[in-house]
Amino acid sequence: MYSNERISMILFKWQKCGGTFGWNKLLKIVIFLVGLGTLISCETLVNTIPADKLPQTESQLTLFGFISPQDTVIRIKVGQTRPVFGEPTSGSTDFFVMEGDTLVWVGDALPTASVTISDGQATATLPFQASERLYAIPVSQFPIQAGKTYTLTVTDGTRTAQATCTIPLRQVAVKNYSLDTVITSSFGNRDSTLTLNFTWDDLRGQEDYYRIRAYELFEYSVVRVDTNELFLVESRRSATSYFNWTGTDSRSVFQSDANLDGTTFSSPQGRKKLENPTMYSNLGGSAVKPQRGPESKGIFIQLLHTDVHYYQYHRSVQRSRGDNPFMEPSLVYTNVVGGLGVFAGYNRSVTTIKP
């Protein structure tokens, strides 16, 4: 590598020669020499770590499930982790959380495991459902009851993972709500937006955790062209549209009554666009507006009274997905012994706002 003394010597010789070849040419030479020296000095930093020096990791079972007395089916996702070091294998164990509860896997599940759920007295085996790539059983065959503790056990013959959760005893009802319509403008376009806020009273004398959700159920028209008769056919369909929530950590989608026992809680503001008619094209290519526009069938506010595992898991997922690139990595919460994932429960109340 060229030292500062060496570069100074080059400059001295250039000055002694009268600087006949110009500053620009000299600067290019100096930059080239410095870059070359840097590459040579960094070459020794690249080393190959032998395989026997890498941390030895093994694949672990993973299980994910949320149970509630209000559900009609118990669904459990079972998979396995992939070691960080070593050759990659086919498939993936990546997942994302849809609406907070439904975990959708990108890769394959583990269809050969044995999955059982027990309340301490009765035990049921969950069969694998190939169409959904998960283990499921109707609650009519194994009811989930408020106040009871449930244990989920997963084994593949050589590995066993187990988790326990307790369903909160009481439902918590919405106390008050406010539903408004506001006009928003974006890039010259005007839209109508529904805003929703609501409150509830915390249960006194115990640790409580909450999660909020709300959605609108509506009907809308679909227009298609009957190519045989050459006329438009309009039909009705149903759909749901969920509210998006804005707020701070003190009023988030997931809330705890730590240091707030017995107080009144407030939701962050929920927002969703008012449903507008969808435009379709007819045989001539021009836009066709359905004769009937969207029709709201009601807005449904769901307040989930959850156990601590549900709350801790979802909050840890939020922290691990932060947008700050300088934030230190954080572990995702798990209550699974012998594996990873979460098994949690909640007791849900629903408040309906009729149109």
TrEMBL record:
Which superkingdom heads the taxonomic lineage of this protein's source? Bacteria
Which residue ranges traverse the bilayer? 21-40
Instruction: Show the InterPro entries listed in the entry.
Output: DUF4249
Q: Does the keyword Membrane apply?
A: yes
Q: Which UniProt keywords apply?
A: Membrane, Transmembrane, Transmembrane helix
Protein's UniProt name: DUF4249 family protein
| Classification lineage | Bacteria, Pseudomonadati, Bacteroidota, Cytophagia, Cytophagales
